[in-house]
Amino acid sequence: MSKGNAPLKVAFVHPDLGIGGAERLVVDAAMGIQSKGHIVTMYTSHHDPNHCFDETRNGMLRVCVIGNFLPRSLFGRFYIVFAVLRQLALVIWLLFHEKNTYDVIFLDQLSSCIPLLKWFSSTKVLFYGHFPDAFLSKRESILKKLYRLPFDKMEEVTTNMADTIAVNSQFSASMFNKAFSSGLKQATVLYPPINFACYDNSVDMSDPTVKLIETNKKIIVSINRFERKKNIELALRAFALLEKNNLLPKDDFQQNYRLVLAGGYDKRVVENVEYLKELDTLATKIFGLKTFTIYPSPGIQQQHVPEDAQVVFLCSFNDAQRTYLLNRSIVLLYTPSNEHFGIVPIEAMYTRLPVIATNSGGPLETVIDKVTGFNLPPEPEKWAEGIKDLTLGKYDRAKMGEVGREYVKSKFSLEAFSDQLEDMMVQLVSTPNDHHFGGPLAFILVVVFGLLSAFIYSYFQ
Fold it and tell me: Which residue, 272, 202, 233, 207, is CA-closest to 19?
């Protein structure tokens, strides 16, 4: 806490406190501000104690769940509609029960509730932008484009109503400016941090979940949610080419190498389930690789990964398993293109693990090509060559690891992030309120038109 300042009361509002980069960011931000002596509460529409980060279930952070009575979708449709409705329900509850309780509300991902906070409370709003939703949604048809129009406009209008805006990278800032016809009002680049203490833990080989994945094989790891946009098949194709293109001796490859595809997996999410099946089919039917899947099954004794498994799907890993993978792997493959930031390469570099990432988006600001890893086009052949070069010693993996660790320590510490975020909040509460009373009718019309267009879109599908 800044000297001479009273503790701030800060609410963090996030749609779903599951496992992912955005969730890791908001949890670290809350922990950082709390460590400064401020009073923190996290609000969310969904929190599953079996599918979340430890800080949100072990009492380190106070978590309140509001709005979970609303569904995430209707017959597999209207995801954006119900995401907005769930957030609006949460904020309306706040306005009735905790109005003006908080000095600052930290929002990320969804900005739709910002007008309500600006019109009906004195709380200052800090919005953290990961990436414009306008560029995350596919628009395969004219109907889908029309359906998205009001939501895109709502994102632009409501985001710019925040008192302060921060973004996770220069790349994201440029994409927000590209997505918004009026541009993004002045934003501060606030790189996501990692909490070094969480990654300094030694590998706990007594942990039963670690024993499940323990192996003497050389591990090549990919960490991403099981979503198609993450392009996990790039890692799988590159791994298969190590044998197919004779980059590694066949016997050596089959006996001594394993690809672990680890990431967030939620059985409620249809895409997670479908994409995992697609990847398994690609591995077994197309490449002839032996696979094994570990599903999240709390309290159930699971089978150890068979020694002959070449590809392991690790769904919703825990912290102990993450520590094992980051410390025992030989390279991390980060496959998404145009990723807005990507916290996983930072985690890997801090643990001295070289990274191969796509040469686009946030990784261009984090991975130093041929110094802490490689920035490569998303082409399996080139990634396979990169893996070979690291594996067979063309590049010094140990040196890359040491340089990567020092680089992360100098640029992505939780302490530096927390200091900058605290300064933003302290400055924010000292500025006069701007309630933006000029646009309520316009906002209501956009919301109504958005809901109407969603139902029209669904009807004609």
Answer: 272
Q: Which distant-in-sequence residues (6+ apart) come within 8 Å of 136 by Cβ?
A: 229
| Per-residue pLDDT tens digits for 247-300 | 999 999 999 999 999 998 988 889 999 999 999 999 999 999 999 999 987 656
Q: In the block, which residue shows the tokens 């920035």?
A: 375
Distance CA 124, CA 5 (A): 17
- In terms of CATH, what superfamily is 198-411? Glycogen Phosphorylase B; (3.40.50.2000)
Q: Which residue has the higher pLDDT, 346 or 433?
A: 346
d(CA 236, CA 233): 5
Which CATH code for domain 9-193+415-459?
Answer: 3.40.50.2000
For 298-411, strand residue ranges (E) read 311-315, 329-334, 355-358, 373-376
Q: How far apart are CA 191 and CA 176, in angstroms?
A: 16
Q: What is the pTM of this model?
A: 0.77
Domains 9-193+415-459 and 198-411 share a fold: yes
Give the span between the Cα atoms of 429 and 85, in whole angstroms: 28
The Cα 36–Cα 334 span in angstroms is: 33
Domain boundaries, the chain: 9-193+415-459, 198-411
